[in-house]
Amino acid sequence: VLQRHAAIISGSTALYYFMPDISWYPNDLDIYVPDCNWSDADTEYERDAPPSNKLTNRVVNTSTGLRSVRRFYTSSGRRIDVIRSPSNNAITPLRFFWSSAVMNFISPDACFCGFPRATLVRRGALK
Fold first, then answer.
1. What is the superkingdom listed in this entry's lineage (predicted)?
2. What value does the mean pLDDT take over residues 17-39?
3. What is the distance between the alpha carbons of residues 13 and 30, in angstroms, rounded to a whole number?
4. What is the pLDDT of residue 110?
């Protein structure tokens, strides 16, 4: 699904990938989708999510780096946010994140840590 829509995973799940031994576990999965692929990705997620586990679309101010967010819940109650990038690049929203510690992403082919010297020693800067 990520490869088909040029999407990435970011946020706390990507941070956990780089720091798996820390004392917390991500409570959600954030999937970022390029604007040009949003329609197809949204249709696919809508089709695959059980009707009782969907929330409606939430439009967000693009100055925050997000165009819109669709929230879904798995049958076990885990949250999945599918986030529409304001550009045709899924990575664009990362520059708006609140901390350098979460400026990481996982794609189907690679993983990226925005600030490895700080993140890998559990440090980060706040905006």
1. Eukaryota
2. 90
3. 7
4. 96
Q: pLDDT digit string (tens) for 66-116? A: 888 888 888 788 888 999 999 999 999 998 888 888 899 999 999 999 999
With a cut of 80, say whether residue 18 has pLDDT above it.
Answer: yes
Residue type, 48: D
CB under 8 Å to 121, separation ≥6 — which residues? Answer: none
Q: Find where tokens 């996982």 sit.
A: 106
Q: Hey, what are 100's tokens? A: 């350098």
- Tell me if residue 119 falls in helix, strand or coil: helix
Residue 69's DSSP bridge partners are 58, 83
Q: Distance (Å, rounded) from C-alpha 27 to C-alpha 82? A: 14
Burial call 41-68: b when 16+ CB within 10 Å, e when fewer: bbeebeeebeeeeeeeeeebebeebbbb
